[in-house]
Every structure is written in structure tokens, then in C-alpha cells.
Amino acid sequence: MLPSFFYMLEQSNPGTVTKIETDSKNRFAYGFMALGACIEGFNTVIRQVIAIDATHLKAKTKGVLLVAVCKDGNEMIYPLAFGFAHSECTESWTWFLKQLRTVIRYPERVMLVSDRHAGIFAGMEAIFPDAAHGVCAYHLSQNLKRICKQRDDVIKLYYRATYMYRVEEFDREMAELKATHRKVYDELIQVGIEKFSRVHSPRKRYHMITTNIAESINSCLLAIRKLPITSIAEFIRDLLQRWFHDRRINAREMPTFLTHDANAHIKQRILPSQRCEIHPIDFHRFKVDDKWNEAIVDLEQRSCSCREWDLDELSCIHAMAVARLGYKIEVIFNATDQSLFNYNNNNIFFFVFWTRIKGMPINALCSDFFTTGWLQHAYAMAVNPVPKPETWDILDAVRDRIVLPWLKRKQPGRPKKSRTPSAGEKRKKQTCSNCGEKGHNKKRCPKPSSSPNTSKPAKKARTCSVCKKEGHNRLRCPDKPPESTLNDTDEEAVVHAFEEPILKG
Where along the chain do its domains lie? Predict the structure, then answer.
């Protein structure tokens, strides 16, 4: 069934890539699925940052679902590829990353973000040696909590260093972290600062410091993890069909040049940018003072020394201040007065000065990734449904292919329903409804109850009708006389037999 479904999925959605691999006994080993609409959007108008993660399947044969997702220009989840494997191991991740590379047009530009699973690191070294690999900041913080024993001050220093834009700011936070907890500092150095730091990352990570989007797509698929693989694949296709349709309409209805999320980002920085002082340096460079720091804005290189514009590709307050004020170059030619010139070319003397104009659009300072035009193109292709099985026209080689389910792996103990918390993750404490304190419930509250007792009174103990004692009834009474073996009819016959006859007159 699965080979036929994948074949029809490719026929219904041009550009779709699917693959099934079996073992020597024709048992299912791995599966891969990437829709053509997602591949086209990612390779053209989506930022080249991919978050990968795995979630466990709950069917009889178990297994894991591997996901690779991105973000569109409106900071919405943009799924790229899905994989199926028997377990989360090095072989599974290597096979999945190998298939993922085939759908990426420029693998050397990609930045992959994941947790610290050993299989992912091995697969990245084997399949993506030319791509960048980053570690999820949240998963790394959970590992650090085991070392620092849940110290919040240490974790805050780690997060501050992770999100810094400038190298000097990162070095300052790391120096403070080193003085506060040396073991955590050594662990981060062993991991590699380029793995978790935004400023030292070899590729732009934008705002994707964690793998939250991969966790979010896993939560969307939580209800169907007990289904067979074919049903899960159809559910994913139907989900993407609805997502692409709804977001295509929303993108067309956006009245602004930038997406809603990018517009919200710009609006938050308008007021701080109005307080900046601007000092021109040359034709395209400016010194901007924002009352706290000084930055150098280079409009030609689209760069700012604060590094926010460089790493996020959304305008910082310093670039917005220059754009809001606006400058242009005016060249005044003068062939007689040589005292005013600053440039000499072909015996023509002229000088250059700045004049203020109304201003330049701030939208021009943002990357095309965040424009509504590119957002519309990301969802331009439709995700088509798969026809009913009765109408399938399948090749004989596909129809005759035998794919058996993988062997059932019975887990020891009772099947778990809830997720397993990560190492060092704080568990939610109970809150008492009586006193409002944490750590116990109303039943174990040491304080007297503030509400009247509405519980039902205990039932009165039973009283035996034979011995008049409590605790049992007459059927279980130990003093009960033995019952006769005769039934009612026999007893009545015996009584009448021994009665003396009544003589009538």
C-alpha cells in the first residue's frame, strides 16, 4: 500500500520526492517524503535554516518520525521533509540526511539546527560536511542544568551569551560565566562556541536559535502517531494542503510591503530610532548615537556595527534613523574656483556636500525574505490531494513491490502515555486549592479548610437481623442456625403427614 501511495503522491504533486528502503527480507526499513510545493518554496524564497528533530510513533510496530522544517517570512512553520525509521540512531539519521540533501539546491548555504543526538552529529559529518550545524539553545541549557544543579544565574548568563550580536559582548558574558561556574564554561567550550552562539555561527541563524518549530510540528502530529505509516503520510499531505491554501490567501490579503511579523518588528524600533543622533562620515557611512551606544551604518554594504542588521537582515534602529532622516549626494561643478574642490578628474573641479531629503523607505533596508511578494511565492504551488485507491493507475513494478512491516519491538513495562522530561527540566509543582501554596494538594494541606465540608457522611455499619451485631448481615451471621436440606414443598408435606386427622361428626 505504501509504495502505491507514494507513487500516486508523486503523480499528483509534481516535484515531489519519495523513497522507500527495505532490508534483505523485504521488511520496511526507511521512508522519505518531501512535497514538490515545499521543495520549490524552500529553494527559492525561504531562509536556508532547517530545524530537524524526531518523535516516537505509537503504533504496534513502533518507530520514529523524522522531520525537517523551516520558517517563512512571516515566522510561520514551513515543513520541508519527513522521514520514517525503526529507531532514532546513527543509521536512521544518516539515511534521512542523505535523502534531505537531494532536495536542497544549494547544500553549502544551509544551516541545520538540532539537539545533541550523536546520530545527528555523525550524519552531518558524513552527508553535510560543507553545511553549518548549530545546536538548539534550549536542549543545551537542559544539559547544562545537570552540571550547575539548576542554578538560574548560570543559565541566564549562558542565554545572554548565546543571543549576543557583538563579539565583544559575547566575550564579556562568557568571561562572567567563567568566573561564576567554570564547569559550565568548559562544557560550552567543548561543545564549540560556533554551535550555540549567534555571533560566531558560520551561517546566519536569524531568530532560529532553538528547534521549537520542529517540536511544534511534532505536537501537530501527536494525535495520529498510533496510525500506520500510510495514514500518517496522508494526514501530513492533507495538513499541508490546508496550510498552503490558508496562507496563500493571507499573503495575498496583506496590505503592506513587509509581512505582518516583519512590520511588527519595525514598529517596535521606530520610536528608539527617532532619538538617535546622526553624523555623516562619507557618501554612504554614518555615525549614529542612540544615547547608549554608538554604531557605524554603511548603507552600501547594508551593514551596521551593532550587527543586528547583518545577522537578522531586518533593519536595526541605527539604519532606520539614517533612512528616516534621509540623505542624498549633490555634485556641484565649478571649473574656476579651485579652493572649493575635493576631487580632480579631467581638469574638472567640483565639491560634494550632503543635503537632507524627505527620507528613504525603511522597507528597502529589510531582506526580500520578509516581503509579502516572496511570501506569496512560497505558497504559490498547491498541494494536491491523492485520488481514491479505486482510480489509481499504477505501474506493475510499483504494484508488485512487497514491503512488509518492520518487526514489532515490545517495550518492557507498561506503555507510557506522557512525555519523558529532559534531564534537568523543572517539573510543575502541585498548587493547593485551599491555601494557594505549591508542593501539596488540598487533601494534604496542613491548614484548615476554608470551605465547608461538602463530602457525604460515612454510611452506618450494617446490623445483623439474627444476632443484632454490626459488621455483617444475616446471610453471613456466624450464629445462624443450619438450614434444612428440604425445600419448602417437602417441609410442608412432612408437616401434613404427622398431623392427626380431624374427624368430622
Answer: 2-131+203-249+377-399, 260-370
